[in-house]
Structure formats: C-alpha cells, structure tokens
C-alpha cells in the first residue's frame, strides 16, 4: 500500500499528551485526576457498590441466606416465588434464592479469571504484534487464525477428558486458551491506529526505547476498545461456562453456578419463567456493573476527555 | 501491495498444515472408541469392530493415519467419508451455503443495527436512548442464546407467523430469525464499542475544529468521527465472523439448519476425524483470507496504516 | 436396536431441515406466503387431500445413522426401514405374537433347534425382482460376512455355522438353506423358541442383489419389499420421502399414500412446527413439554407406554456392591413415583420389573425391593455397611442430569450417604470405562426391545459373559432358566422366563428405574384414533388416517 498518500491527510494527528515533565509527578497527578473524576461519576459509584455486593456474595454467601442450597426435597419441586422461598424452588426442590446466591462464587470466579487473563494476554500479544510488525506480527496473527480454526469443543473434550476433577481453574483455562485471539486482534487494531501518530514518531526521534513508547504513549491511547470488550466478555463467559457443562466438559454437578441455572431454565422458559429470571438478573447486574465500571475508568483515564 | 497480499496468502500453507495436524491429533487423542459408540448400548461383534477399524485406518499409528488422509486429500481430492459412508465433500457442499448465508445475515444485522444504535448513543450521549442501548446490551449478554432463539420462534414464528419457525424452505426469509439470534450479542457489543470510540472522537480537536468551521453536525459525525472510530469495530466484526462460523451449533440446532457448525459439533462427538479435519481446513482458509481483508480495510479506513 | 441414542440429547435426538414439495404445499396453505396469514393458528389442511388413497403425512424424524437394514441399530433408521421392508415375520402388537410377513407359515422340531419357514410366492422387491428362499439365504450370508461389517451380525449367533463365517473359516452359514424355491430351513446352535419373533427384526430383512454390490449407494435409496418405496434419494438432514407400494402382497397395506419424514435436530423445534401446522405429527415430545402438551394441543395429543427401560446398574466387580443388601437398600431408598411426577411430568412408569409391562408375561408385584421404603432402606444400608461415598456415572448431554441428581439427593437424604459426585461422560468414553471395568459406582443405562420377547429383555444383559452385561452379573441358575425357557414351548416359556426374572429382582444386578412413556402430538390433519405407537417406540405411521377435507 505504499502508493497510498503518506500519513495524516484526512485526520490530523491528535495532540500528544504533553510528554516532557517530571515523570513521577505527572503520573501521580494523572491518577489523582482520574480518581477525582471517578468519584464525581455517579455511574462509577453505582457500579462500585454493586460489585462490592456481588463479590461479598461470592465470598460469603452465608451472609445473604440461612438456607442450605443443597437441601433439595423433591416434594417441593417447581414452586413459584413465595414468602418462604423468595425466588421459588427449582426442579429438584432446592430453595432457588439460596442456589442463586451460592452460584455467585463459581460464576464470578470463572468470569473474572477468564476476562482478566485474556485481557492481559490479548493486550500483550496485540501490542507486540502491532508494534514490531513484520514476522512477529505474521506469526502471532496466524496463531490466532489457528486457534479460531480449532473448535473449542474439541480442545475442551481432549483436555478435560484427561482431568479427573474439573475445577473452576480447569474450565477457565479452556476458555482462556480459546478466546484470547479476539482480544489480541482488537488490541492490535487499536495500536495500528495510533502508532503512526506524530507524538509516537516524535518520541522515537527523541530516542525513547520501545518499552517506554509502548507504556507511555501507545497503551493509554489504545486500551479503550479492549477494556470495553473485556467488561462485556465477563458476562459472556458466565454463560459459556454453562455451555461447557451441557457438553459434559464444564463444571460438574453438583456444582452450583448461574450458568448451570440458566442452562436448566431454558428448557422451562414458558412453564417456569422464574427459573430464568432470577439468575438472569444477577448475570445482567454483573455485566452492568462491569461495563459501567469499564466505561467510567476509561473516561477517567483517557487523556483526551480530561478537559470535560 | 500485491506483494503483501501474495505473502499473506503464502502464510496459508503452514497454518493449514499446523491446524490439520493439531486437530487430527486431538480427535485421535479423544478418549473412547468411536466405532464402539456407533451401535450404542448394544455391543457389536468383535469381527465387525475389527473390520470397521481397519476400514477407517483406526488401527494405524497416528502419523500414518494422518499421512494417509492427507495423501488422499491432495492426490485425489478425497476428503474421506463419515463412519456411515457419506462423503465429507457432500456434507460440506450441503452445509457451506447455509452457514455462509446465516453468517452474512447475522453480520449485516450487526452492522446495520449496531452502527445505527452506536452512532445515536454517542451523539446523544447520556440521554435516555444511550442508556437504552447499554441496557439492551446487558440483557442480550445475560440471556442465553437458546432462550433468545426460542422467544423469537415463539413470537414471530408461532404467534405472529411473520417468519418460519425453522428450516430453510422459504429462502432468505428463513434466515432472519436465526441471523438475529446469532448476531444479537455482537450487535450490542458493536453498538457499545462504536459509541465509546465515537464519543472520544467527537471530543477531539479536529472534530471541534470542523464544527467550529461551521460544518454540519451530521457531516462531522460521519466524515471525521465515524471514520476514526471504525478500526476496533471492524476488528471485532472480523473476529466475530470467525467465531460465528464454528460457533453456530446452538442456532443451527434450534432453527434446524444443516450448516457446518452443527456438523462439526456432531462429528467431534462421533470422533469422525475426516469430517472434522475437512471442515477445519475450510475454516482456516477462510480465516486467513478474512484477516487479510480486515487488514486491508484498516488501510482503507486510516491511510496512515500501510503495508509494504 | 440400541437403547438411547448415543449422540442424542434431551433436545436433540440425532440430527436437521425441510424443503420438498409437499412441505411447501402445507406451509403455503397454512401460513400464507410470507406469513401474514391469520388463518386460524396456521393449521394446514388439504395438503394433497384430494389425492385418493390416504393423503400425505409429514412426520418428525431424527437423522438416521444409515438406511441399511443389516446395519441399522437405532430408532431413526429402523423406523423408516420397517416401512421400506417386510421380513419373514411381523409382530402383531395386539397379541404380541409373530404373524406372517414374507413367510406364510412356520414350524419347528420338538426341541426348537430346527425351523422350517414356508414363503409366500408373490413377493417382489420394489424394482420388480422376485423374492424367494434364496434371496434370504444370500442376504443372510452377506450380512454375516465379516468383510461387510454389518452391525446387526450378532443377532445371527444362534444359527449353526455363525462362528465359522465370522472367523473366516466358512463362506456361508451352514444353518440356513433353501430346500426349494419357497421353503427356508434354519438349524440352530441351541434351542431358541423366540426365533419367529426375532426374525421380524430389522437385521433380517431381505435385500436385493444391488445392495451387496454397492451398499453405500444402495442406502441412499434402499430398494425393499415393504409397504412403501422410496421417492427419490434420502436427503441427508432434510427429509426421506416414500410412496405407498401398490403391489405389496401383504394383508394390511399402508393407509397414507405418502409419508415424508422431516428430519430435525431439535425436538423442541419440531414440537413448535407441529403447533404451527407445518409438521403433521411428532412422536417424541420433549420431557419439559409434557406439562404443556394438553394446553398446546387439546385433543391432538396422547401418551404411549413403551418398553424403553432405564436402570441404574451396579458394578458387581467392585467390592462395595457385592452385598445384595446394599443393592436392595439403594433401590428401596428411591421414590420413583416422586421423581416421575416432578422430573418427568408423569411420563414414565415406575419399574418394578425387568420384563416390560406391556408384554403378556409381565407381572406387577414381582419385585420385593422396588417400593420406596426409606426406613427399611436406611436400616439395611447401615447393617450392610454400605459405602459412605458414591460416584454416579451417566452419559452427558442426553437429558439424564435431572433425574440422576434427584436419585442422588434421595440417597443422601435417606441413606445418609455424605458425599455423592457425578461422572458424566461422552458416550464413547462412557462405554470405554465399562469395557475396562473402571466404573466405581451406580451407572445409568437403558434397553429397548427390538422384538417383544421376554428373552430379549433379559438374555443379552444379564447372562454370564454377554457383552451387554455391564454389571458383570453371573448366576448359573439364571443362565439355566433362560436356556430352558428358550427351549420350551411358547406357552410354557413365559412362566420360566418369569422365574428367571425373579432371580434378577432378588439378586438385583441393576436397580430397575422406569419404563418410558412417550408423548405424541399431531396437527388437525391427522385422525386422533389412528395414532398408535408400539413398545419399540415406533410410531405406527403406516396406520395414520388423514382427515379428508
């Protein structure tokens, strides 16, 4: 594409975020600024409170309910929500409120472990691929093609079949291995979009090392889309975990998770809608908390939107 | 430019070899005897088992099996047959058009609805409409795909009779509901991602300048804002299309479509190496081309990105 | 016939879409072209009703594994093949007796080891080739030939010379001979009175010469001798269409003029399509739909009891399960009816027997340890020092999760077992564990009768050394009783089979759980009274009457 116009004819480069100051001082003030703008953002406050509640629920479910989620007499199966059973009971006759509360631990764990890991892996690989280009880029990107091409069910069956126990970590690992490429691609795309900016060229000319350039100039300007996707992805993973169980390679019964509850509920959409509604509300709240939080963080950290 | 494209196409070779080898090995490593499972609970006579194993080269060591298969593919275009004797090429011929149509319908849905919703949400940031987009995303992420599909079938298929419930007999119309189901989550993500990017772009100096110069708002949004926000969206759509091809199992199943997603799923369960490898080969080829297209799109969107 | 399909799941019995002329007609009538029609909830009448004899029926089916009689071991294929082929005998499901098919008459010697079948003289294949005794000899020899690797081969093992042929020492079955054009003789290794019944099974249908030359292309459009003949090829994952064969010489030809099996991947989708009138009938209503079936279909729905038997096997090769008190306690701690009511919406019959309830030889109160008795169970379990930890095995993705979990909850509650875990595996892997005797706890398996004989309900699963004997049960008295019953006159045989069943119910190598009931729903086009299902879970599609209108 050499014959195309050279750089910046359409879009003028964005201004560099004033690069030459005392470093430590500048970073400190950056974080302070971010924190100040976060505190003033109501969405941040709401999502933070929500996340604290959800995490507490995952860690100490007994704070939220006295009922045993594993006490399941069939004789009280499929009850509608009532004063005694706030969320009704499920097919097995378990108290659904207790089930949903206790489901938080596995679901949040899988969601957070997987999202965080693929975020880190994707950012690192995408950054490296775009920054160095050439064969590094070619190898890494063809690797993503390869992973896309290998059906994750196949990987899951092979890997989990040799495991006797299937812990949250095993299930997370499978999901990580097969989902990082999207993140790497996203990151690479964002980096490619900023790497030709004047301020990067300037930093290079001034002799800044690759690490410095990546950390100080590229990362802050290219993380946005990946952060946004990672937040939503947490919710997607919570559902994906259930799919794995359905295929016989996910968390095993009698494990309790929102994913398993959603999976069971979908056979009874018309007959017993409460089975879908309650875990769904919790998954939705989690996704909502993560996306709002991501958005707020992004706004606060974004050098360009500070002028607001 | 041409050189770049040729180089990219050449990278196809190692990726295909690696993908087929890995996939073949994985199916090989899957526990259980596929021939044994053919007849279910009631066992076959040992002689029949033996003949069938011989017929499908299952007694050979792994590399010999692989070599025999690849030899057949490249010398005679023979992709083998299923354990029931059905040629794999036949299956691909039947499934490919369906899968491709489904993916394209889903993709157009994502692009049209996603982009419109994203632009509106960004332009009217923090308005009711913006929040609606966020809430819709949270909901589609939380509701299992299967439930979305079922609700669409129930509402638009059974009750309103606008679209067929299942099958492909009514042509493109049959793909509307499955396409929406398949694209729902990603449409939300596209909208959200575009919104974030656009909000950022609209705050940047060049957009302010353009506005200050008296350019019409709509023109500013499209010419300057949108253009600079598209890279992550295009990347995401590319990656999503890749996941869609292999990940259509649920949608294909509930809408009774005979596409490749469901086929590869069933073939993995039946450990039919021939089918799995045949389809994977096709997918890899597609991904390599797809990613080339995405990279070329980058250059078209942002002329500062160039390849040589 | 295998029991539950290996690849099947609760929602997905086996395999996909519709096209085809008649389906188009139906859709167009009921729904209007792009669906704006409000035509009373979309029923599709008169799709081909003006055609004289019987009209067209579109029926749900799953994708068959294959359409080769000698190779078909599952419901989706065998059900179709039964319409395309007629064997030597057929079964009358009113009396549970073998009745004439191609054979008009048969008799055996005193000890049931030599059998002579007289064949009707006017049978031909759909391509016009005549059928005589040699057709059967050639078919049977081809089926058993190990080079052809046909899955139903093992059904032939009672015939003299079977071992020699499968081991490659002989070309032909010594025990099957055509003494003249229309007389077929069988010589058996051992007395076997259920032979005429067994010969009704899919694996014994006659096949024309072309089947042996190129089996793979043959099964794309099998040429048989049955009530219906293929119209076009088998469209994989889409449909199989057959027309009535007007020259069928049997006594009760098919009622509908044409049958179209529409192949679905997902039973839930097929259910919606019947509701919309796009599909006429489906025979496996999803379990979670049973409670809404009446509301959705009014009079157009019904339930049938079947022979499909679900059991919890116990690995007798593990020490903990060798004490039969432990087995009795486990059985008595299960409240089958409660599970059926709450998990299956009533669509199972609690099993207190091994011989399926619809067979004439079945009894109701034969089992002493199948009734729910938590106190006795707890006491017995404690005395026998039953294991305090259990792993329950089942195959994944086939809809067993819910009831297995319920059983586990009851064992925990009533027997005080503290720790129960689950091992759910892909079917291939599941069978591997069984073959290697690596199963360490109760395991789920099932069995459906391929032909309605108490012999088939017991001999393959519980006699010593049989390959379906996953519990590894071995009881000499039981083995002898089965052999004795197989050698007895049919009138006396039943009571001997019952004695054998008593041993199973006392020794309890497997805990009987349920016999499945299957829901059937249909559109207004089908006359309700004509809907029948036999114990093999085969809908009698050839008897369906289409409402004239």
From TrEMBL, chain A:
Its main location: membrane. Keywords: Cell membrane, Membrane, Transmembrane, Transmembrane helix, Transport. It is found in: Cell membrane. This is ABC-type dipeptide/oligopeptide/nickel transport system permease subunit. One of its GO terms (biological process) is transmembrane transport. PANTHER family: ABC TRANSPORTER PERMEASE PROTEIN (PTHR43386:SF6), OLIGOPEPTIDE TRANSPORT SYSTEM PERMEASE PROTEIN APPC (PTHR43386). Pfam families: BPD_transp_1, OppC_N. Residues 1-22 are annotated as: Disordered. The lineage of its organism: Bacteria, Bacillati, Actinomycetota, Actinomycetes, Micrococcales. InterPro entries: BP-dependent_transpt_permease (IPR050366), MetI-like (IPR000515), MetI-like_sf (IPR035906), OppC_N (IPR025966). Residues 104-294 form the ABC transmembrane type-1 domain. It is a multi-pass membrane protein. The chain crosses the membrane at residues 42-60, 109-136, 143-162, 168-187, 226-255, 275-297. One of its GO terms (cellular component) is plasma membrane. The keyword Ligase does not apply. Belongs to the binding-protein-dependent transport system permease family.
TrEMBL record, chain B:
Keywords: Cell membrane, Membrane, Transmembrane, Transmembrane helix, Transport. The chain crosses the membrane at residues 12-30, 98-123, 135-152, 172-194, 233-255, 275-301. Gene3D superfamilies: MetI-like (1.10.3720.10). GO terms for biological process: transmembrane transport. The keyword Magnesium does not apply. GO terms for cellular component: plasma membrane. It comes from the Bacteria. Residues 96-298 form the ABC transmembrane type-1 domain. It is a multi-pass membrane protein. Pfam families: BPD_transp_1, BPD_transp_1_N. The keyword Nucleotide-binding does not apply. It is found in: Cell membrane. Belongs to the binding-protein-dependent transport system permease family. This is ABC-type dipeptide/oligopeptide/nickel transport system permease component. It comes from Garicola koreensis.
Automatic annotation (TrEMBL), chain C:
CDD domains: PBP2_NikA_DppA_OppA_like. One of its GO terms (molecular function) is peptide transmembrane transporter activity. It comes from the Bacteria. Residues 1-27 form the signal peptide. PROSITE patterns: PROKAR_LIPOPROTEIN. Pfam families: SBP_bac_5. Residues 98-468 form the Solute-binding protein family domain. Keywords: Signal. One of its GO terms (biological process) is peptide transport. This is Peptide/nickel transport system substrate-binding protein/oligopeptide transport system substrate-binding protein.
